[in-house]
Amino acid sequence: MYFDPIMQESIKKVEAAREANIRMDPRRMTAEEKDVLLKTYHPDYKTAEFTELKMGPNKGGKVPVELAELLQGNPRITPEQVDLTKPDYDVDVLIIGGGGAGASAAIEAHQNGANVMIVTKLRIGDANTMMAEGGIQAADKPGDSPAQHYLDAFGGGHFAAQKDLLYKLVNDAPEAIRWLSELGVEFDKAPDGTMITTHGGGTSRKRMHAAKDYSGAEIMRTLRDEVLNRQIPVVDFTSVIELIKDESGCCAGAVLQNMETKELLVAKAKTVIMATGGAGRLHYQGFPTSNHYGATADGLVLAYRAGARLLYPETLQYHPTGAAFPAQIYGALVTEKVRSVGAMLVNANGEVFMNPLETRDVSAASIIRECTDRGNGVPTPEGFGIWLDTPMIEIKNGTGTIEKRIPAMMRMFAKHGIDIRKEPILIYPTLHYQNGGLKITDDGQTDIENLYAAGEVVGGIHGRNRLMGNSLLDIIVFGRNAGRHASQKAKEVSVGQLTLDHLNAFNQERANAGITTDTLSPRLLPDYTRRRNTL
Ligand code: MEZ
Fold first, then answer.
1. Would you say residue 405 has pLDDT above 50?
2. I need a surface site. Which of 70, 378, 414, 482 has the fewest CB within 10 A?
3. Catalytic residue among 305, 339, 462, 480
4. pLDDT digits (tens, 9 = 90+) for 441-480
């Protein structure tokens, strides 16, 4: 890959400054500096990109314009189109979504004796879990504690996390690591068998457990194997397009649609677990995304329509280091672990402008400021980028570190002719995670009786910003938790008559609010149709 002449000139400055930069220990920003930075540069503060919901449980609350369009969009079916009297599936626990949270929930519900089924619009494992790279947090080493983990995450999330949920997350973390290890996850270990752990942005202790830089893929591989070994049924290439309730208003199943044939199917269930993941493929504010192809906010839409409240739907996470060049990998995740193992962020002039391990929202805002108002970004075909000086890693830690600790990064850039051991890489923030989502209680239940939720579709665990490695953790802790509670609850539920009446109520409320739109929701898959001829 040829860096263009401007990039090459800038690389020379980065190389010239490297030795001095390596010795730097850039100070952390003060709380006041962070506050001003976020309000001025973080995308969450761009008020024109948000709108007030005109209807539903969060009426009057702000959400991204793209999400409002879906939350208030047209259902894909009318109640008359579906025969609810002859369900195609009848199970104890229906799990919607085949990522890490859904798989963990399924394993735990199955362990508890439930008749459980997973439905997924793609295949099991096609999920953001698979794409998480840097690691999973757990305070399981001497000198660390769940209390310390709590303080880091609570502060990093701007003191907005639901305290009971965060308490559960950090306290159940060591057990989550044990469970994954016993299932077969190959975490990185020192020769004496202890886990190798590193820092992430905003952590006060090294508690990031990793499988090189494909931690999520290794976890998902293991969970998927366990689901398949247990012969838990997985209905794949089938989306959920509506939740079903019974006449007492409890969640009682879902309307499914085969993605290929468009055939409608009915799944009746005593309890349902929503584990549909995030929304990166909505490309809020035109950002590229690190997310999986299926991340289109379906769970938020389905549950909101059925009456579930959302918490913090206006807060999104832009991962500071998405690939900014070359175009083929624009927006792809460059794991935070690259900074954990020693790379620093350097501007076009070769200057270090921030501590590389500030929290994600602060780091993203700082990079945006550097590229916009300060004019210190490196021009790329898509916009601007900042250097992540990867050759520093081997200077600090020795030759071979990159291949050993972040081989996936090395491979991703090598495919495009960039050797990250010798050349820095260009990054820019990419849409990575939805901090907000469905409100749940600590047993995993949403506002709707018998509808549980787990994983990225949930809001409030992390507050208004999430630390690295707490998402792989939450899918395990809250996935298992939902599986346990939903299967227990299923033992005492008897489902009444199935109905889709809530759709009529939703349509009426839309009409009363004067909402008219052609948008069909849930979106199911991203829309990359080229609408203008730009050639
Ligand atoms: O928690 C994450 O989002 C994560 C592990 C991402 C990464 O940078 O690797």
1. yes
2. 414
3. 339
4. 999 999 999 999 999 999 999 999 999 999 999 999 999 9
- Written as one letter, the residue type at 154 is F
In the CATH scheme, what is the code of domain 79-315+435-499?
3.50.50.60
Residue 533 confidence (pLDDT) above 90: no
User: How crowded is the C-beta side of 288, counted as CA atoms within 13 Å?
Assistant: 22
CATH number of 5-41+317-431: 3.90.700.10
Burial of 294 (0-12, 13-18, 19+ CB in 10 A): buried
Residues 6 or more apart whose CB falls under 8 angstroms from that of 484 comprise 108, 109, 112
Strands 74-75 and 520-521: parallel
Active site residue 319: yes
Distance 7 CA to ligand 1 centre (A): 27
Q: Which residues contact 367 (CB under 8 A, 6 or more apart)?
A: 320, 345, 386, 427, 428, 429
Q: Tell me whether residue 149 is one of the annotated catalytic residues.
A: no
Boundaries of CATH 3.50.50.60 in the chain? 79-315+435-499
Q: How much distance in Å is there from the Cα of 334 to the middle of ligand 1? A: 9
Helix (H) or strand (E) holding 406: none
Contact 132, 215 (CB under 8 A): yes
Cα Rg of the chain, angstroms: 23
